[in-house]
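Notebook B, p. 112. Complex prediction, attempt 2.
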Amino acid sequence: MTFPVLSIITFTPLVAALILLLMPVNRKNEARVVALASATFALILSLWVYFNYDQSIAGYQFVEKYEWLPALGISLHFGVDGIGAPLVLLTGVVMFTGVLISWGDDNPHVMAGIQDRPREFFAFLFILAWGVLGVFVSLDLFMLIFFYEIAVFPMYLLIVIWGWSVTREYAAMKLTLYLLIGSVVSLVGALAMYFAQYQNTGVLTFNMLTMESARFSPSFQIIWFLPVFLGFAVLGGIWPLHNWSPDGHVAAPTAVSMFHAGVLMKLGAFAALRVGIMLLPEGAKYWQWLIMAFAAIAVVYGAYIAFVQKDFKYMVGFSSVSHMGLVMLGFSTLNADGLLGSGLQMFSHGAMTALFFAVVGMIYDRAHTRQIPELGGMSKAMPFATVGFIIGGLVSMGMPLFSGFIAEFPIFMGVWQVHWFVAVICSISIVITAAYIMRNIRQVFFGDMPEKFEGHITDITILDKVAITTLCIFMIVIGAYPKFMAPMVQTGVEYIMRLLGGS
Amino acid sequence: MFTSISFASILPEILILIVGMLVLIIEPFWKEEKRRNVGWLTAGGLFAAMLISFLAGQPGAPTSALGGMIRFDWLGFFFKMLFMFAGAATALLMMDHEQLGKRGEAYLLLLASLIGMNLMAVSSDLIMLFLAIETASIPLYALAGFMLGDDKSTEAGFKYLLFGILTTTIMLYGFSLIFGFSGTTDIYQLAEMFRVGAIAPLAAFGILALILVGIGFKVAFVPFHFWAPDVYEGSPTPVAGFLSTASKAAGYAVLLRLFFIAFPEPSLSASWTTTLAIIAAISMIVGNLLALPQTNIKRLLAYSSIAHTGYTLIGVVALTQLGAASVVFYLAAYILTNLLAFGIAMAFSKATGLENIQDYAGMSRRSPWLGLMMLTAFLSLTGMPPFGGFVAKVVVFAAGIQAGYVWLVVLGVITSVIGAYYYLNALKFVYLYRMPNQDEENHPIPLSRPYAIALVALTLGVILIGTIFAPWFNWSDAGALNLF
């Protein structure tokens, strides 16, 4: 067995959270330092995994396995494929930038960062990160659900304690109940799969690699695919069940919105792919049309709703629904192009939306309003944030040279091969997205600054700039040099295509 | 006749009896103000008894002991360990209670009740079983009504007594019918009697119904749950915690042994599993829905414990080895979690004298550690990892699905989401809301040493069951194996 890098990455946030909780209450700066140190450590390790991933092999790498409860076939079984490795990196990046954004500002006019109980904030945030990383690396279905639920409950506390005081109680409860219903429904499906595979193979195990060859009967797959896939896809913001997501985004504090939209929604999509499509491929083929319809509606509807929003943060929240719809759309193609695009889109959207929420948070901290019509001329005071937002906007619109293009183009290619008219309908969303992004850039960042803001708006801190730069680097590198990520995702897609029978 | 096996089979009870005698002998020598030390003696003694029994009294292959009165096996042994741990934690929580803490009798009643519960878990004869149930119950009637000056406590004790006597008598009538029809009181011979048809199916069904009344009272499933909220609210908080955990688990120990050993005959089990499945469904729905509007923390926990009875019953209904193991595992996780929840309620009302959920506002600022413990307890009750409640719920649901009760499991997951609402709502008071003057720093919640020890031990236990679950599950499974 080699260096157990995945378990070290996964348990780093947990250890950090425990250290934070054991620290004295009033040591705010020390808590921040501990948080930043552990986030940096996790980022370095995730970069190490990313660059040491062997792109010439399809399948799981860095595999570790420890028996946990042999009587029921539960083991701590870690490994990443070409889809999982970028998401581990994404989690590292968002953790690192999220901690930087939450640091705060010495300027008394700025209500930035987390001033109230940062110790608890970072501890809960890291428990969330622990769950997220655990899902991305788990190869055991029980542990996957275990980590999945760990990622749910800290959200409630993070939103309800540090969130926007107007809607936080409502939004936090709504989000938690939606996600819990989704996860318990998937749990029932997972248990059904567990016993079905026991009947087929005689081995009692939650090991997903074994389940892949369990030969579930087609009727079983058709019955259980929908509960499993949709249960997880709730967290991915799939259309009729997306309602919790914009409310949750808006109510959450900045770093949590970044985590939430950037990583947590990928968690739902990833689990839906891993458990739904990869373990129940026949079910996926049977229900393909339904998933595609849901995703297509999400793409267009999400973009349109984002277009009519007056609240900056709601706009970003609905744009997330639209972009996550593209991920689901790629899944629903069940072909190599679509899945490749989805894999890239998950990373691209994660970095982009984290950047959006970071900038929105910076503006709100200074202007104390998020109403788009009331804002203006921010580029004079915050040039750096403006550049960051524009880069994010270009990614969002799918401009060539930015990661959004590399991700969206294969998705549309994949969709065209299945139903060309769905691709045509969904391409409308690109136009709408371009429209609201351009309009917002002009309204919020350029033009005249309203008088009430003159002198109040200060530039962002150096830590904020580091965070923005980090996120932008990844978006540009992937866009300008697709070989950075595309071949890796390709290896993951090859593996999935093998399970789907090469269709 | 008195062999080393029969000695080992009742070693825990002998040790508890010794602790009880020590309490009786030593208590009068302590002056009034030092008398709370009896709690240390009880808790320490129980813990030592647990340790000695674990090291020296582990059962081997299941054997019949004491003339066929008791069964010496892992199932009973694991339950005994749980009861004694719960007893030790309860003794610690009693120490700083105004009316209980300095009264040696209270600890003695607790110990007497524990002996009864231990015997409930191992009785293999109906007569022995009835004696054990009464030994466990009667001290609890007294404890529930222990605060004589308090109307609510008196009401609780009286209500518990009346309800208890009524239901136990009905159960006794069931036992007597069994004896009348079959001529035996040995649980292990009954299965054979049912198999050869010594008892007509209709009569057997009636007998089962009578017995279920008695057990239903003990484990508080619907429709025999009415006493629970009033009794929990009125009785001293540590006693309420004990009632809702150890006493309930003892009921389950009886339910498992009696129904899995004596009535597994397919013609018979089809009817009682269906009955229990419906009861489980109604308990989950009623418990969770009635918990929603509660404002008193003890009443909230009472209704939530009715809901948890429903979840546990899924494992019984499954009537498989996994089902039995899941019941035992669920009870282990539930005992620790609910004792923790009641312990926090006790510590909080000791410091503030308040019991309503809205009084918990600002608690995490007043005492961050107590807030985290409450987080642990309530998230475990919700069924969230990495706490015991999650794994427990998953194994119970797994047993249900394996046995084909998908509808019951689906109902279980839906009601558990309803449960999440009121548990999270309580946590909102702890973490979000503040005291009226926002001066939490000036209102700390002091924890005396017994509370600190008990609560920390319970918290660690809840986390341990939820993360390193293999040993606990293997013990539960070893116990479940004894039923087949």
